[in-house]
Please model this.
Amino acid sequence: MSKTIIITGTSSGIGFVLAEYFGKKGHKVYGLSRKHTESSHFTSIPTDVTDNDAVQHAIAEVLESESRIDVLINNAGMGMVGAVEDSSKEDILKLFNLNLVGAVQMMSAVMPKMRENKFGQIINVSSIGSEMGLPFRGFYSASKSALDKVTEAMRYEVYPWNIHVCSLHLGDIKTNITENRVRTKVSEPYKNVFDKVYALMNSHVGDGTEPLEVAEYVDQLLAKKSWKAHYYFGKFAQKIGVPLKWILPQETYENLMKKYNKLV
Model:
């Protein structure tokens, strides 16, 4: 059955691949991103999801043509690298405004129609890194972790209307995220170790999972009748970090993370 699907962050990367994938499968897809994106497989609506008026206008535009909104995929987001000490208030707020507030504004905008139709599926694209504080990505981890907790809370609040919400934690995906990250000024005490970690994280992205595999996994999720709160998708070496954090002593886990990130 054809669904009406709204996806944010569709100008490139995972969002673009998701929008094209579901459009080709016959779904009515609307892609929201700051700039117009040319595609014959989905309708592009230029939208800054951090601007609530723009979000409301975009959803109103969708509803001019559609009687329902079945799926929202909150994919829009950005990375941020740098030491906690060096991060400015402005950069932190910019990050949380997109990764958390933008997603919340999108969910709030689609909820009335989903509630009216007594059905909806919302996927908040998170990160495996939301489950642990990653070196030199502390605020990125924190922003995605905050989104995870909002997702958990919302599951309780919307289940009476048959609306399902989950976090999809991704490992490194082969995209241009390295070009779009906020990079804080790196002060002298951190420079040498940061340069090593930064080169490593970029190589992980270069060796990451193909975005099409993410789209295929999301397709499988949408076919499920019920959802868990959290799903993890990526290479084994990254996914294994989550259960290890639950079962290992903190010091042991931190030592493993230091080795994985070449801090020792």
